[in-house]
Structures are given as structure tokens and as C-alpha cells.
Specification:
heterodimer; A: 214 residues; alpha/beta; 2 domains; two-stranded parallel sheet; B: 97 residues; five-stranded antiparallel beta sheet; 35% strand
């Protein structure tokens, strides 16, 4: 691959600094494309910054809000399962960029777990960027042929009479697991309940936390 | 969603085609040739095998949620109740007995 090494220089013609550490070939390519888009006026620095801020603003806190509301309001839970995008909008969460969105409800007898064996498909508007392990070859292989082994590593050991359902999200559908509400949490406030809903419980590799973390 | 255009309905037994060809194919290798059943019809979506190579994705293809017994996919899988569910486009499915 031919790369214009001038983009590695700390002070090139347009006068702002680039990272000084060694860049991978892919990173150099990304910077080169960015320079071209700016030079040609297709994007501005402002556009790029806004997009980064938008990406960073999407976090598992969105998912925790949805799950908590479903725990405390059965009517909301029904709406969430019937029409997840509309139910997200009710809470001010925009999931419209997802082609199709499906909520998988865990029960005492069923645990769901989500993977994308082909790449890293993930419900980003609800959970933000996927964790590195979600994209690893290890998880993508073992989640489909040894999901119980993976769950065990996250501290979840479903009994034998529980059905484990692994969803390989290979196409346009994005899945969110609705974890079980832990027992003995009736007295907790909404804010406390939200703290029980971890990112990993919405991927389905673990249950929601039994108690509010210190 | 126009389920009426779908060739299969929920509950139908289906076998994933075993095909090896290049391109942006969203049917994972490990599930090709395996037999399961239609769990749900997701609807019609642009064809990734066209989109992935600069095409317009048309005509749209019906996408299914197909369920498999884990023991039918992996010989040594122990827990009998466990299922594997994969989103598969219609042209990768054939009727199975």
C-alpha cells in the first residue's frame, strides 16, 4: 500500500499536529482519508468532532434506563417487546438508525446471549461501542459452541433445566437482552436499579448484579 | 413486513444450503448444511451480497430467524435444551423433512 508519509510529520502544510507515536498502516490510511475529505470540503473539523461526540454519548446507560423501566412498569415492558424503537423514543433514546431491533426477555427458564460471529454487530445506539472482547475471535468462536463455558467465565452458571439461547446476529437485526430483575430489589430506587444493569447483562453473558455496587 | 412473500412460515423445517463461493456472504460457515426450523420471519431487507460489493441490494430478500438444536450443530454439545439462533436470508434455505 502506498501512503503519503507527509501525514506523519508533526507540522505539515496545514499547520496542526498529528499523533507522534508510530501509526499502523490502517491508521495512516484513515488519517490520509480524513485529510482528503477535509481538503475537498466534504467534511469539516466540526462535523468530525460532532460525530465523535455523538458516538461517545451513546453508552450502556441508555440500555440500563430501558431495562429498569421495563422492570418497574409491566405495560412499558410489553411495549418494549412489541415495538422496541418506539419504546426507546419514549425515554428519549434514538434507536432509529437500527434497521430492526429485537428485545430478548430472559426468564427463570431461559437465558439469551448475543454474538456476531461474522464481525461486531451490536446495538450501538443502546449500548455504545462494543467491548473489545465482544469483537475477539475467542468470544466469536466459543459463544456459539460453548456459551455455558463463556457464561461461567462471567460468573453465570445456568442450571441444566435452563435453556440457553445464543443469537448470532449475522444480518440487519440488533438484539438487546432484557435481564431478569434480581430478587429482593423491590426497595431500590430507579437510580439504584439502573446500577444493577451492567452492559454485560444486556449482551447476556451474565445476569444483572444482585446488589448495588459500592 | 410482507410475510406473504415469504416462502417459509414459522415452524417450517429448513436446511441451510451448503455452498462455498466468494463474496460478502452473511451465512456463517459453521451453520451451512445444518437443519433447523423457522422461528420467526424478520421481514424483507436489502441483500448484503449485493450491497457489500457496491450494488443497490435489490431485490430485497426475506430474512428469517432460524433456530437449531445445539446438539444438531455441534456433535459434542451436552445441554439438550440449548438453542442456537441465526439470521439467515431466504436464498440460503431449502425445505427439510
Amino acid at each position: 500500500m502506498s501512503v503519503d508519509h507527509s501525514v506523519d510529520q508533526p507540522n505539515d502544510a496545514h499547520g496542526h499536529e498529528h499523533p507522534k507515536h508510530e501509526l499502523s498502516a490502517v491508521a495512516r490510511r484513515v488519517y490520509a482519508i480524513r485529510e482528503l475529505l477535509l481538503e475537498k470540503g466534504l467534511l469539516t473539523e466540526h462535523d468530525i468532532r460532532c460525530q465523535i461526540e455523538y458516538q461517545e454519548a451513546r453508552s450502556p446507560a441508555n440500555g440500563a434506563k430501558i431495562v429498569t423501566r421495563a422492570w418497574i412498569d409491566p405495560a412499558y415492558k410489553s411495549r418494549l417487546i412489541a415495538d422496541p424503537k418506539a419504546a426507546c423514543l419514549e425515554l428519549g433514546i434514538d434507536a432509529t438508525s437500527i434497521n430492526e431491533f429485537v428485545v430478548l426477555e430472559n426468564t427463570e427458564k431461559v437465558r439469551h446471549m448475543v454474538v456476531c460471529t461474522l464481525c461486531s454487530c451490536y446495538p450501538r445506539p443502546i449500548l455504545g461501542r462494543p467491548p473489545d472482547w465482544y469483537k475477539s475471535f475467542n468470544y466469536r468462536q466459543r459463544s456459539v459452541n460453548d456459551p455455558r463455558g463463556v457464561m461461567r467465565e462471567f460468573g453465570l452458571v445456568p442450571p441444566d433445566d435452563v435453556e440457553v439461547r445464543v443469537h448470532d446476529s449475522t444480518a440487519d437485526i440488533r438484539y438487546l437482552v432484557l435481564p431478569l430483575r434480581p430478587q429482593g430489589t423491590e426497595h431500590l430506587s430507579v437510580t439504584e436499579l439502573e446500577k444493577l444493569v451492567t452492559r454485560d447483562s444486556m449482551i447476556g453473558v451474565m445476569d444483572a448484579l444482585p446488589t448495588v455496587p459500592k | 413486513m410482507s410475510a406473504s412473500r415469504a416462502k417459509f412460515k414459522a415452524g417450517d423445517r429448513v436446511q441451510v444450503r451448503f455452498e462455498d463461493r466468494p463474496g460478502h456472504i452473511r451465512t456463517p460457515w459453521y451453520i451451512r448444511g445444518k437443519t433447523g426450523w423457522v422461528e420467526r420471519i424478520h421481514g424483507e431487507f436489502l441483500n448484503p451480497e449485493s450491497l457489500g460489493h457496491g450494488g443497490d441490494g435489490l431485490p430485497k430478500k426475506v430474512l428469517y430467524l432460524v433456530a437449531f438444536q445445539q446438539g444438531d450443530v455441534w456433535q459434542r454439545y451436552a445441554a439438550k435444551r440449548d438453542k442456537l439462533l441465526v439470521d439467515i436470508f431466504e436464498h440460503w434455505l431449502e425445505p427439510a423433512n
